[in-house]
Write a structure and sequence with these properties.
The complex is a heterotetramer of chains A (122), B (173), C (139) and D (493).
Chain A lengths: L1 H28 L3 H20 L23 H31 L4 H4 L2 H4 L2
Helix pairs in contact in A: 1-2, 2-3
Chain B lengths: L1 H15 L3 H21 L3 H25 L12 H18 L11 H18 L4 H9 L1 H22 L10
Helix pairs in contact in B: 1-2, 2-3, 5-6, 6-7
Chain C lengths: L4 H23 L8 H19 L1 H7 L2 H24 L14 H36 L1
The chains are: A mainly alpha (122), B mainly alpha (173), C mainly alpha (139), D mainly alpha (493).
Chain lengths: 122, 173, 139, 493
């Protein structure tokens, strides 16, 4: 049980790192535009975990002040992530709108077909 | 931390699956898992936002886009080695960074004691709002929320500029 | 979508509660989890659900695009307006302390107004994007 | 009453004007709102500069919450000149925009074009003025989103591709920046830049701080288009509407440089960044690579906008070179070149905008003989081109002079040599344009040129005159730059 106890604190961060690596990998490796945007949102979600995991105190409660509770988890990272989620959604919406327009203008949303030399340097 | 391993499994499947339709559904599952992890991490406000925004609206938007574009992805053309290297490089930098971070559930780190403690202490006397997150969001750091609303405003105007059919004018080919 | 009666009846039953829940989340933000963003998204979700089930035409009659597009800047205007209000009371930007007779009520009033602005902008944007996507699809 | 609230007003006025232009949809009225808003900005920023010069650092707590609790606007001698620069560029491009927008963008979309333009201005000013790490991210995101939309409005269908590519890279950059801020926040617990610096001194486990430094540097250099990460810039500037390119080329990358400087000196402290970490050699390698490779690529470009875009990447190489030599003259050189390059590049892109309006051609080969049909615009182009090369008497010379003396002070004579040789490459591609413009027979597109609206020519010439005026009497720009360099090196007074 002890190995799990001292493994636990770092487990959170390793999962964050794994999510970040997979998010970045999708964005860099995959050519499909919608897939890239999904990867981008994965990459951003891993950042939320990075903000939140130090915020939790074992046995603490959410930061809503109530009579019986003393230990609260830190409220500031919650505010920051609320902003980050909204920014993520705004970028996603814009990316999707661009994908729709690109699909109409070029007829395909595969990055490899779009970046052929004859298109970009005609 | 079973939830976190579940999320890892979902992420691997997102990478492998090629049918975009299921990728979108998987990403909404991923957001719901993320929301439940946040509840475990005592971040209730954020869990609600992640669930409603992350899973709800983004799935609607993605499905809307898929409806207008293709739903299957082509076979990846070039070898995945270089991107893997880039991703792992960034991950290694982060692993290097997290060793010094305070362990998981300990309370006396500067993370808690410095500014957050002041918010917890002064929220009731100064603003009378019980939910500290809302009081910080709206009054202490109200300017961030103004920036946030402007971000939403920009995205709204941007998407409308790109997609909206203006007075039946032909799309500029 | 026109045939499945079950769906239409159940959604008719659902919609009012979803909208009520959105308003609850909005105004309960001071005491429990919730706030402008979540409420805005839930409100937008109800309109989108209505549009999916009952088709686009009745929804456009119910919530015309012009209204939605003016909602987007309106929310930000409210937010900026509250900021300017604090100028009148002689403090720095976005300070709600003197909006009402004492600081506590002033802050709560300010927070309520600000959350309202956020609700309007967020729901307006989400519905406008949905209209744009749906409108694009139809042609 | 107004003077004390100037910092907040400077950012809120563009946002308010953006909201109004969104409400009034049709083109002319929203142009007027944008015009008035944009011309109020330089007035406010000059007043702020005046206040800052005689009072020292201005700190404006938003919502009257003390800095580490609430968000703080902090104006010191570093960001005051930048505020004036961005406000003037916004005002000049706004006056210039009227006819260029009507010709390049669909009539129904123009109303909202000004909204997005004002949001971009507001976002950039917000990043410049804030003293709070996360607030800088929010406003950086506003200006980036506005930039993606501006680029996507370009006439050419490839503008959509360029906007998409910039969106992906820009968001990755912004997210890396947030990771860096998150790591610092986890260690120090506060977001206010000055407060972080105070807390960083007490930290003994340096690992997360170094990781945060690495992430923030990579994130911002993605926004900055530092050499290996500049892939998005040429496409973005080439296909965007010429008004957007003119504004972005002279301000967007500069704000990212400012943020990098702010982090290197105010947040992390010069000793941590430069003495203990190998930042200087890394930056030197990238800057020199940028200067040479980008200039050489610029020579072979067929499209005049892409050529200027690559020359922008090269010029940013000069600026990062100045930062790498972290001495007083080196930093002053970087800051002066920032201001001067904004003027030069602004003039060049404005001149290109006039050419595109008249002849609609921006391929170099069918610009032959344009010097004869549009003498005034091309004259402004040449004046700015000379500035690019660094001919004495123009602003370019002032900044090159600072950089070369800084390099020689360090005893790196080979670096001074490199600066000179890369300027020679600049001579090649500017000369190529001059040769085509004057010594060739006017081709068919060029001779079709009609009347050029007065305000466009006027603005281009105001900018060209500025490149000469500040070249001759450099006391104003150089004075501000060296003052800023002092405060940066001294850390926080």
């Amino acid at each position: 049980m002890s190995t799990l106890a001292e493994l636990m604190p770092l487990y959170n961060y390793w999962i964050t790192i794994f999510l970040m690596i997979s998010g970045l990998y999708i964005v860099v490796a995959r050519g499909n535009m919608v897939k890239k945007l999904v990867g981008l949102s994965l990459f951003q979600t891993s950042v939320y975990l990075l903000y939140l995991s130090p915020g939790k105190i074992l046995g603490g409660t959410p930061p809503i002040l109530a009579k019986g509770f003393e230990i609260y988890s830190a409220p500031l990272p919650h505010v920051l992530i609320l902003t980050a989620i909204v920014v993520g959604i705004a970028t996603l919406a814009l990316g999707l709108a661009l994908t729709v327009r690109i699909n109409e203008a070029f007829g395909s949303i595969e990055e490899d077909e779009l970046f052929k030399p004859e298109i970009t340097h005609d | 931390m079973v939830l976190l391993t579940l999320m890892a499994v979902v992420t691997i499947s997102i990478i492998r699956v090629r049918n975009l339709f299921s990728v979108v559904i998987l990403s909404s599952i991923y957001s719901f898992l993320m929301a439940s992890v946040m509840i475990v991490l005592d971040a209730v406000d954020v869990a609600m936002t992640e669930a409603s925004v992350g899973a709800g609206i983004s799935t609607v938007l993605m499905l809307g886009t898929l409806y207008l574009t293709k739903t299957t992805e082509t076979v990846p053309a070039h070898s995945p080695v270089l991107p893997l290297f880039v991703a792992i490089g960034t991950g290694a930098a982060l692993v290097y960074g997290t060793f010094g971070l305070p362990p998981f559930g300990i309370g006396n780190t500067p993370f808690h004691t410095h500014v957050s403690a002041i918010y917890l202490g002064s929220s009731i006397p100064e603003t009378g709002i019980v939910n500290v997150v809302t009081s910080v969001l709206a009054s202490y750091r109200g300017y961030d929320t103004l920036g946030e609303t402007t971000v939403i405003f920009t995205a709204g105007i941007g998407v409308l500029l790109l997609l909206k059919r203006f007075s039946k004018s032909t799309k500029d080919k | 979508m026109k045939l499945d009666v079950i769906l239409r009846v159940s959604v008719k039953f659902f919609l009012p509660f979803m909208l009520l829940f959105a308003l609850y989340v909005q105004f309960h933000g001071d005491f429990g989890p919730g706030g402008g963003f979540q409420a805005g998204v839930i409100a937008a979700a109800t309109i989108v659900l209505y549009a999916i089930i009952f088709g686009l035409a009745p929804t456009i009659r119910l919530v015309p695009p012009i209204v939605v597009e003016t909602m987007i800047p309106l929310g930000v205007l409210i937010f900026l307006g509250v900021g300017f209000l604090s100028f009148l009371t002689g403090d720095n930007y976005l300070n709600y302390s003197h909006l009402a007779h004492d600081q506590i009520h002033g802050q709560e009033l300010g927070v309520l107004l600000v959350e309202l602005g956020v609700l309007i902008t967020v729901s307006g944007t989400m519905v406008a994007i949905f209209y744009a996507l749906a409108d694009r699809g139809r042609s | 009453m107004i003077e004390s609230h100037l910092p907040a007003l400077l950012v809120v006025v563009p946002l308010l004007a953006a909201v109004f232009t969104a409400l009034i949809r049709q083109g002319l009225a929203s142009y007027l709102v944008a015009f008035i808003a944009c011309w109020s900005l330089p007035v406010m920023s000059i007043a702020l500069l005046g206040q800052e010069l005689n009072q020292g650092t201005i700190s404006y707590a938003l919502g009257d919450w003390a800095p580490p609790i609430g968000i703080e606007y902090r104006i010191d001698s570093v960001n005051a000149p930048f505020l004036v620069l961005v406000s003037f560029m916004a005002a000049l491009v706004a006056t210039y925009a009227r006819s260029s927008v009507t010709s390049e963008i669909e009539s129904s979309r123009q109303g909202w074009f000004y909204t997005v333009y004002l949001l971009c201005v507001g976002g950039l000013l917000g990043v410049l003025i804030t003293g709070d790490a996360f607030n800088a991210f929010v406003f950086l995101e506003i200006s980036s989103l506005a930039t993606y939309v501006l680029i996507a409005l370009g006439k050419d269908r490839r503008a959509l591709l360029a906007a998409y590519q910039y969106l992906i890279l820009g968001t990755i950059g912004a997210t890396l920046y947030v990771v860096g801020v998150g790591l610092i926040f986890a260690m120090t617990g506060s977001l206010n830049m000055v407060d972080i610096n105070a807390h960083l001194a007490g930290i003994e486990t340096l690992r997360p701080v170094l990781a945060a430094l690495a992430f923030i540097t990579v994130g911002i250099s993605l926004k900055l288009a530092l050499f290996p990460l500049h892939v998005w810039l040429p496409n973005a500037y080439a296909f965007a509407p010429s008004v957007a390119t003119a504004f972005l080329a002279s301000t967007a990358t500069k704000v990212a440089v400012y943020l990098l400087l702010r982090y290197f000196f105010t947040v992390f402290g010069a000793d941590l960044v430069f003495e203990q970490q190998p930042i200087t050699p890394i930056l030197l390698v990238f800057s020199v690579a940028a200067m040479f490779i980008a200039s050489i690529v610029a020579v072979f470009q067929a499209d005049i906008k892409r050529m200027l875009a690559y020359s922008s990447v090269a010029q940013i190489g000069y600026i990062t070179l100045g930062i790498a030599i972290a001495t007083q003259t080196g930093l002053a050189g970087a800051l002066v070149h920032l201001l001067n390059h904004a003027l030069i590049k602004g003039t060049l892109f404005l001149a290109v905008g006039c050419i595109v309006l008249q002849t609609g051609a921006f391929k170099v080969k069918n610009l032959a003989g344009i010097g004869r049909t549009m003498p005034l615009t091309m004259a402004a182009f040449v004046v700015a081109g000379l500035g690019l090369i660094g001919v004495p008497g123009t602003v370019g010379f002032v900044s090159k002079w600072f950089l070369i003396t800084a390099a020689l002070e360090q005893g790196w004579w080979w670096l001074a040599l490199m600066i000179v040789t890369s300027s020679l490459i600049a001579v090649v591609y500017v000369g190529r344009i001059v040769e085509i413009a004057w010594f060739r027979e006017p081709s068919k597109e060029v001779s079709a040129g009609g009347r050029l609206p007065i305000e466009m020519l006027g603005v281009t010439w105001v900018m060209a005159a500025a490149t000469i005026y500040f070249g001759l009497d450099a006391e104003f720009t150089a004075g501000l730059a060296s003052r800023a360099a002092e405060t940066l090196l001294a850390g926080i007074k």
